[in-house]
Amino acid sequence: MSDFILPDIGEGIVECELVKWLVSEGDVIEEDQPVAEVMTDKALVEIPAPYKGRVTRLYYKEGDIAKVHAPLFELVDESEGAGQATAPTSPEPANSEPANEASAESATRPAPDDGTTEDFILPDIGEGIVECEVVEWRVAEGDEIEEDQPVVDVMTDKAMVEITAPKAGRVTKLYHQQQAMARVHAPLFAFIPRDREEPDEPKAKAEPAAQLATATASPVATASRQRVPASPAVRRLVREHELNLADIPGSGKDGRVLKADVLAHLEDGSKPAQAPAVADDTQAATTGGARRQAAPEQEVRVEPIRGMKAAMVKSMVKSATTIPHFIYSEDIDVTDLLKLREQLKPEAEARGSRLTLMPLFMKAIALAVQEYPVLNSQLNDDVTEIHYLSQCNIGMAVDGKAGLMVPNIKGVESLSLLGIADEVARLTEAARSGRVSQEDLKGGTITISNIGALGGTYAAPIINAPEVAIVALGRTQKLPRFDANGQVVERAIMTVSWAGDHRIIDGGTIARFCNRWKGYLESPQTMLLHMG
User: Fold this and answer.
1) How confident is the model at residue 349 (pLDDT cuts 50, 70, 90)?
2) Comparing 7-21, 214-228, 435-449, which segment has the lowest mean pLDDT?
């Protein structure tokens, strides 16, 4: 018998979250068989078994934080465990009380020999990530699940992750409520694999105990078997109005209840209640007055800052308080750039690419950086050295499902416009769904924030450390300008706002850099002269 010590799973990582147990206590496992999935702040890591044996103890529950170089689970060598496994079986006929106690215990925690119920251990879902928020359960206790069926959505400080079922079976217990924090390498939910439900007699014997456990632990499990799909915000709205989600017809995909469905249900429900009130104006006035008086007494809704929001809090506070920002704004005439895009758009679409202005902005930055490399540099921790980076990895801020994310496109200077366009489309879709890989989030050297997509014009963006510059693109406006002949003409004008790290970037440098970048954008054909 020996403890499995959690090894080093990443440089500088001292703890991780137990996302999912892939085995249960009492299971016999093979060498190199996946035992648990743990999540660091970088990646999801699968922990294999060191040798063949029987798992006798799991030291963490799913959602707990496990320490590196500390015991993760207890494993008995198969030859050693065989003797221990048969020992408890011989005294059973001699004493009935221990057998009854074991039966009662198995209602909440199945015996190792039975092995009917398995705990799903929350696996590693990111390097250095030790916990995540349970955003939405896709199933309820008692539901039948299929292999690889989505079971729950969890959110880390990096991205939204969809947890799927390891095998077909029936869910018996959900260990966490929605919006609760789950630990990596701790149980997330319990289920009975379908291939273990075949014997009729054992199932019949276990049925009273299972019913007792269900009645005690989850009295509403039967009612919730027909789970109605809805987002956490919609469920919160339903709770606030004391409604039953099952009574509201959903107009979304697969019967999903939307916010509009809840509001429509409230309006429909209020009509019968107002029918007698039409005949009695005094009662309606009294009811309305009572509602107005009760409004100030409503509780304040408290929402914890978790996941991507928590990560943004830390990084933005650190950047804003440690980096002296220098803001520089400029107007850019993108009339010719828009015309060029329209000319190239049909050919790009024929190739299967969607050409927006973003690839052109990125390519122009990569070209301008070659003349002003300090914009594509980083400072060391002691602020004693400037590290000029060989690649221009341009990040783009995306307001995604899991929060603000900044994936970056690697080596923009060496990519074609179509290559950049394909990367922009891929990363935008991934960020909006909250499923960006860790590799796409690491290694950025300079960032673009397109606030103009939401209608903004000017901004004072905060640098995405350890980068030293960021630009915010405002919306494009049709504005009057004078041409070479002094005539007023309509031009497409975009306002951009640069923020530079004033420790190494002065006003003159960022102005000259912006002028070079602006020249490429206002005369996009000149970029052809400098493309490698």
Assistant:
1) very high
2) 214-228
For residues 178, 182, 186, 189, the Cα torsion angle rounded to the nearest 10 degrees is 10
Sheet harboring 150-155: ordered strands across? 160-164, 150-155, 131-137, 181-183
Catalytic residues: 502, 506
151-184 as b/e: b if 16+ CB within 10 A? bbbbbbbbbbbbbebbbbbbbbbbbbeebebbbb
Residues paired with residue 41 on neighbouring β-strands, in sequence order: 127
What's the confidence (pLDDT) of residue 500? 96
Helices (H), 323-380: 335-350, 357-371
Confidence of residue 301 (pLDDT cuts 50, 70, 90): confident
**Residue 155, pLDDT score:** 80
pLDDT band, residue 234 (cuts 50/70/90): confident
As given in the structure block, the two tokens for residue 298 are 């409503």
| Residue 499 tokens, joined | 């923020």
Is the previous residue joined to 98 through a cis bond, with omega within 30 degrees of 0?
no
92: DSSP letter = G
Give the integer Cα–Cα distance in Å for 337 and 518: 11
Report CA 277 to chain centroid distance, whole Å.
Answer: 48
